[in-house]
Write a structure and sequence with these properties.
globular, 144 residues, N-(1-d-carboxylethyl)-l-norvaline Dehydrogenase, domain 2
């Protein structure tokens, strides 16, 4: 789901700093939900965690990234998925993740906006605005 958000960021031409900020803020979000579900914090900083996230979020070959980019270009989800011709896992994951986050009361602001975007509740621009309007918080990871 984070790669979808990054695709939107790039599709809207928000720049490298915005993309870096988004990925940086996504790391604690992913760790929060992953550890709540039993994952080990260290895993999220290794190749299968951070490594996979960076590859998925920064590659134009990433299906999830391409979904976000296409949405930012104004394409509808059905058209994007048809053009992909394969599965973008983040699309189906969105509903499940938000259901879990709601039930377990886990804050997932980036994923929540991606979910709203994928379900046609907001535009890419509104998703970015919703994230930018959030209250400032310390730039520390409270997971250790």
């Amino acid at each position: 789901m984070i790669a979808i958000a990054v695709g939107v960021c790039d599709g809207l031409n928000l720049g490298t700093n915005a993309k870096a900020a988004l990925i940086t803020r996504a790391v604690p979000e992913v760790i929060r939900i992953g550890t709540h579900l039993g994952g080990q914090t260290e895993t999220f900083f290794g190749l299968s965690g951070l490594g996979d996230m960076l590859a998925t979020c920064t590659s134009v070959l990433s299906r999830n990234y391409r979904v976000g980019y296409g949405l930012a270009e104004g394409k509808n989800l059905e058209q994007i998925l048809a053009e992909l011709g394969s599965t973008a896992e983040g699309v189906n994951t969105a509903n499940v993740l938000i259901e879990i986050a709601n039930r377990e009361e886990i804050p997932v602001p980036i994923s929540r906006q991606v979910h709203r975007l994928l379900n046609g509740k907001i535009t890419p621009q509104e998703a970015v605005e919703a994230l930018m309007e959030r209250d400032l918080k310390p730039e520390v990871c409270d997971l250790f």
